[in-house]
Each structure stands twice: as C-alpha cells, then as structure tokens.
Amino acid sequence: MGGRQVLAARRLLAEALDGEISEPEVVRAARSVVAELGYDERLLELVAELAGGAGDPAACARLSYRHVLGFDKLLLIDDGPRQMLRAHLWRPGAAAAGLEDIHNHRAPLASRVVRGRLAMELYEPRGDGDLSADGYEESLAEGTGDWELRPTGPARLRLTHTGRYAAGSDYALPALTLHRAWCDADVPTVTLFLETGSRRRQHTDVFTTAGPHRGAVAKVPLDVTDYLDALGGLADLLRSS
Fold this sequence. Notes:
Blueprint: H1 4-17, H2 23-37, H3 40-51, H4 57-62, E1 65-66, E2 71-79, E3 83-90, E4 102-103, E5 109-115, E6 117-125, E7 131-140, E8 147-166, E9 170-173, E10 178-183, E11 189-196, E12 204-208, E13 216-217, H5 224-239
Antiparallel strand pairs: 1-2, 2-3, 3-11, 4-12, 5-9, 5-11, 6-8, 6-10, 7-8, 7-12, 8-13
Helix pairs in contact: 1-2, 1-3, 3-5
C-alpha cells in the first residue's frame, strides 16, 4: 500500500500535526510540512511513487477532481479527518484574476509553490468595503460530497493584501481567512497543498462577484486510470522544471 516516500510523508504529517495544538501552532506546523515535502526532488519521488500505484489509488481518485475554481486537485495522502495532502495543478488562463470566488476553508491550510507562480488576494468583510459581492454558505452534501450553496445575502469586502508567490515560496492561512488565488504565469503552476483537520468547520464562506451561483455544484471524481495518468503527467511536469 505504501512506498518509502508515502510512508515518510505520513510520518512527517503525524509528527508535526497530531495532538491537541492551537490553530496558530497548526498554521506554523503545516507551513513547515509543505516546505519540507515540497522540494522538487522529494515531491517528484513521492508523485512518481504514487503514479506507480503506491498508496491507495482507488480511494485517492475518488477525492481527486477538477475544481470549479479552475485547477486540478490530486489527492496524494489521505489521512482521514486529520490532514489531506494534495497537488494542485493550475493552468494559465483557466481562472483569470478577479473571476474566481473569494472563500475561506474548513481548517487551517498551507501551500508551497513548486513550479510557476501564483497570485493571491486576501479580503475582510467591511461595511465600507469597495468590493460588492454575493455571499454564500458552502457545505458538502451527504453521500455525494457535492458542493451545496446557501445564499447569505449581499456583502461588501475590503482588499487587505495582494501577493505573488514564485516557485520556492510558501504560505499558510488560518481557516477563516478570505482569499482568492490564480495562476500568474504563462506556464502551468504546481502547488503542494495541505489542509489540516484541526477543529474542521462544517461549512465555508464564499463570495462571488460574477453573478448568482447555482444551489449545488457537482463534483466529478477521477477514475483510477485518469488519476494515475494525471500523476504521471504531473511527474513529467516536475522533471521538466
């Protein structure tokens, strides 16, 4: 089930994040994990091992899909409710600046840019904010895991930070931090993404400036063959970096 790199990644995740630790400690630990696992050679070895069938490809394929925000989410390590380690593949032009939704997460996260460049904006709700948006509460449907969106009404947001993250950069965010990100390069961008399981919320907050959303958005998981092919393609992309 687990090759050498898979087992080593699981050990690192457990050592860094298991136990009762505060959210600031989770944020710091998660950032250190993606920094350690996200070096080119180590990540390439992990992805190549998984592409060869290590781990649990059937289970990981069921939780891998093309995200509605315009990037591919490939699950690498599924540690149940505690941590999920993913590779995100962002393609140029798939989600241009200002088109994707502003959102937060169910738990603290950390990400390292392995290839390409990512741009990100941070926001806060403010009655005098200069950005008008439609608000939603997003949750996962039981059984299917599809996204369900419940309107929460109009909102105003204020931009608090704009950043660009080149290959080798990493960042970490508390669960409630509102943000949006997109590929900021003319080549595919690869990020290693870790979502922790510390005090996981039941929903996220989503704000869109692109008009009303449907009440539900289906997730279409990859089958095992497509998942392994995607990992093989990702390994080739990492080798060419």
